[in-house]
Amino acid sequence: MRTKATEFSLEKDIALPVLFADDTSFLIAHSNSMNMNQDLKLVLEITQKWFTANIMRLNNDKTTFMQFSSNINYRSTVNTQSIDCKINYTNSIKFLGIVIESSLTWKKHIDYINSKLNSLGYILRSLWSVLSLQIIKQIYTSYVHSVLNYGYHFLG
């Protein structure tokens, strides 16, 4: 017996769904922008049907599209306007705490980590005179070390 939850399926050739908690991402790979448009439209149609069948709505404000390229000056050739579901193009997105850029550089993620560490640096300097070195090291290990090591296997 098939339930509504099992009716949501894509051929492996079209898209790879990546599910985590309540977030779903689809990875579509093509060297041809026309095929990319067709597959993107198909994935969105299937997704819309699944949401409708399960009495849910796709949040168009949170639905974005990003096309990866190693060329920093590359502009997307995929026409998201031709798709019934309006999705916005973005150059970067935060995915599981890691900022991913369409240009495949890590500049925005490094900036994001740097801002987190700058605020902790200020706190550690402020607490230096009132806490022992052992406590300062524990704060460093629990926060700074974890921020620096989170997702390192994705970055290399």
Walk me through this protein's architecture:
- It is a single chain.
- The strands form three sheets. The chain has a two-stranded antiparallel ribbon.
- It has two domains: 1-104, no CATH class; 106-156, no CATH class.
- The chain contains four helices and six strands; from the N terminus they run ββαββββααα.
- It has 156 residues and is α+β, with helices and mostly antiparallel strands.
- Strand 5 and strand 6 (98-101) form a beta hairpin.
- The protein has helices at residues 33-53, 107-127, 133-149, 152-155; strands at 16-20, 23-27, 64-65, 88-89, 92-95, 98-101.
- The termini are far apart.
Please give the structural blueprint:
Layout: E1 16-20, E2 23-27, H1 33-53, E3 64-65, E4 88-89, E5 92-95, E6 98-101, H2 107-127, H3 133-149, H4 152-155
Parallel strand pairs: 3-4
Antiparallel strand pairs: 1-2, 5-6
Write a compact overview of the structure shown:
This protein has 156 residues and is α+β, with helices and mostly antiparallel strands. The protein contains four helices and six strands. The N terminus is likely disordered.
What class, by secondary structure content?
alpha+beta
How would a textbook summarize the main sheet? 2 strands, antiparallel
Element order: H for helix, E for strand: EEHEEEEHHH
Record the strand order, biggest sheet: 1-2
Total E-strand runs: 6
Helix content: 40-55%
The low-pLDDT segments are: 1-7
List keywords for this structure.
alpha+beta, two-stranded antiparallel sheet, two-stranded parallel sheet, 4 helices, 6 strands, elongated, disordered N terminus
